[in-house]
Design goal:
The chain is an alpha/beta fold. It has helices at residues 3-6, 21-32, 47-54, 71-81, 144-153, 170-185, 201-205, 223-237, 245-252, 256-269, 284-310, 324-333, 337-341, 346-356, 365-373, 375-381, 403-411, 414-420; strands at 36-40, 60-64, 86-95, 100-112, 120-125, 128-140, 159-163, 190-194, 213-217, 239-240, 280-281, 344-345, 389-392, 397-400.
Length: 427
């Protein structure tokens, strides 16, 4: 067995995957109870791995969401993957004061057995054929009611997995929250994977979803979980992590993704690319090499993301920006890790920025509200994917949701990064 099959982050099942009662059992409960399932947590914490573990490929349709995706795009992808034929006939656009909504009218070919249409095909095995006929019906691909009717007509029984739900515009997320309620009535069930850390995200958009779905948080990961992963992987590769396990756990900051990558890189640093016949003991030198490699891997992306995060375009020569993003990063870099991991209170962010700001009296509560409430969407617009931060309005705390950022901040030179950032003009 190859090392990369045992440890690391992958879209395929990793051999060192362990089941956790509070996560895997809850996910399976959602499958058995025929409810929508919401799997949430920071990036690289095992959301996709959970679905791969418990669902065969024949049991689901997977749709990857993007910042440009609308419900129509999601539903069209599902129909295409199912081989449902539809001919887009026209687009109708409805304009309101707040939004512009497009709907696609489409002629959909629905297969059925019996009489009523002249267009026919044949299906069968072992020489026995049965006549399949099609009827063409006009549907609106933007409406969950119409999509549900199509899926019922083709006897759809799979789950629909929505990857990267957090990439969707917030208005689209709200719209999907109402659509999910309609789909539940037709027993068309979704699995939503998203990077956030608070409960009831979709129920906040549509209170009618409360108690109608199963929420599965993939965090926290405890030290004993990491030990089980190492034990399982060690047996498969015939390696011993005894001398380095504490260092790897300490540098993983409760992130299974970082932990898996450090395990993989430690093995590779020792020249272990596949299962061994005799046992090999990994050393601190191998572990240090792994940490250095992952820091190099993560540094480029995180430095670019931070540069994009603090960038603020000036709309006019008369505008005098506050550069809240720049001062937030400066404040973040001044904190110790316990404060960051616990989540940063809104009041502490406000006070911290004011203490560092060149115009402290101008930093108002309304400026903080705008900055925090638009935090995720502004990162997505700047192509910071996955987002680094998320603000939980219910607890009024900002949290890091890219689990690799903890590792980067712990091992990088924060002072050097701050010095290399472009200082906004006028400061």
């Amino acid at each position: 067995m190859k090392t990369t099959d045992v440890f690391g982050v992958s879209n395929d099942e990793i051999a060192s995957y362990i089941e956790r009662e509070e996560v895997d059992a809850k996910f399976l409960e959602g499958l058995q109870r025929n409810k929508h399932i919401i799997v949430f947590g920071a990036s690289k914490q095992g959301k996709t791995a959970l679905t791969i573990k418990h669902l065969a490929e024949k049991d689901f349709i997977r749709v990857n969401c993007s910042p440009q995706s609308a419900p129509i795009d999601i539903y069209s992808s599902v129909l295409r993957q199912l081989g449902v034929e539809f001919q887009e006939e026209r687009t109708e656009t409805t304009t309101t004061e707040a939004t512009i909504k497009a709907s696609i009218k489409a002629a959909v070919k629905i297969p059925f057995f019996g009489s009523g249409e002249t267009e026919c095909g044949a299906e069968g095995k072992g020489g026995k054929e049965k006549e399949v006929k099609y009827k063409t019906v006009e549907y609106n691909l933007a409406l969950p009611q119409d999509i549900s009717e199509i899926l019922k007509a083709v006897k759809f029984t799979k789950r629909i997995i929505l990857e990267n739900f957090h990439y969707l515009d917030e208005e689209v997320q709200k719209e999907m929250a109402f659509h999910l309620r309609v789909f539940e009535d037709f027993n068309i069930l979704f699995i939503v994977l998203g990077i956030w850390r608070e409960k009831n995200r979709l129920a906040q958009f549509n209170g009618d979803l409360q108690d109608r779905l199963i929420e599965v948080p993939v965090e926290p990961w405890r030290k004993e979980d990491f030990i089980k992963v190492i034990e399982k992987g060690s047996d498969l590769l015939q390696v011993t992590f005894e001398d380095v396990v504490d260092t790897i756990v300490e540098n993983s900051f409760d992130s299974i993704g970082v932990f898996q990558e450090l395990c993989k890189e430690t093995c590779l640093a020792a020249g272990i690319t596949e299962s061994r016949i005799t046992n090999c003991r990994l050393s601190q030198t191998h572990c240090d090499t792994a940490i250095s490699r992952k820091l190099d891997d993560y540094s480029g992306r995180h430095i670019r993301s931070i540069e994009s995060f603090v960038e603020q375009k000036i709309k006019s020569s008369e505008e005098v920006p506050l550069y809240v993003g720049y001062y937030f990063i400066k404040y973040l870099f001044s904190l110790n890790f316990k404060a960051i991991e616990a989540g940063i209170k809104r009041s502490d962010i406000h006070d911290g920025i004011r203490a560092l700001h060149h115009r402290p009296d101008d930093v108002r509560a309304s400026d903080m509200s705008y900055f925090l409430h638009n935090l995720t969407s502004s990162q997505i617009k700047k192509s910071i994917l996955p987002p680094l931060f998320d603000y939980d309005r219910s607890t009024r705390k900002l949290k890091i949701i890219d689990s690799t950022l903890y590792f980067f901040l712990r091992n990088a030179n924060r002072d050097e990064i701050m010095e290399e950032l472009d200082t906004p003009s006028g400061i």
